[in-house]
Amino acid sequence: MGDSFTKTQDSSGKTYLDLFAAELSDQTGTTVTVDDRSDDASTSDGLADRLANDAATKEAVAAADIVLVSVGGNDSDPFGVYPPGTCAPDQAQRKCLQTYAPRFAANYHSILDAITTLRAGRPTAIRVTSADNPFVGWSEAPDPGFGVRFYRQVAEAETAAACRIAKANGALCVDYLHIFGGPDGTQDPKPYLASDHAHPGDKGIRAIADELARIGVPELS
């Protein structure tokens, strides 16, 4: 369950979900079927609502041994106007997130609680992904420093929150923010991105799939 980042296909028409399923099938000798419930415009608000109220979504999750959650990139407008100092390098991550996307953390708690409830105690491999930061090195950014001066703090705050909440709910976090952007998240992710510099390219899609495969699904052993 993700947004356009999850829906993006590589040059052979595969998403990182498809590649991960193939790798996992090779590792385990078990057929892994992808049920992609992603939507280009998905937000954490929307996903929390779907898990609470949409029968098809609830049925799909109840039947899924592996559940991946990758939403939040659409929760707020990075080009919007925020109070001075919002998500500045010296601001605490939680304060950044409270201003930029105030429902993000609460929604992730709701999303993971709903998944746990729908799975009714059955072994489940729940995976939560990091945010990404395409603004470093992107010509469409408001200015050359935007990706570090502002959006780095947003991506780090969303990643920290998602990973923290995942851990509290027995899920595992897939951090591709620091694969694409290096250890401090400030490198230009261009090698991992498509020509739009906003979505993953072949290398990025493969990198996320490989990280998912590296973590594996020990919960299902």
Automatic annotation (TrEMBL):
<feature type="domain" description="SGNH hydrolase-type esterase">
    <location>
        <begin position="1"/>
        <end position="206"/>
    </location>
</feature>
<keyword id="KW-0378">Hydrolase</keyword>
<dbReference type="InterPro" id="IPR036514">
    <property type="entry name" value="SGNH_hydro_sf"/>
</dbReference>
<dbReference type="GO" id="GO:0016787">
    <property type="term" value="F:hydrolase activity"/>
</dbReference>
<protein>
    <submittedName>
        <fullName>SGNH/GDSL hydrolase family protein</fullName>
    </submittedName>
</protein>
<dbReference type="Pfam" id="PF13472">
    <property type="entry name" value="Lipase_GDSL_2"/>
</dbReference>
<dbReference type="InterPro" id="IPR013830">
    <property type="entry name" value="SGNH_hydro"/>
</dbReference>
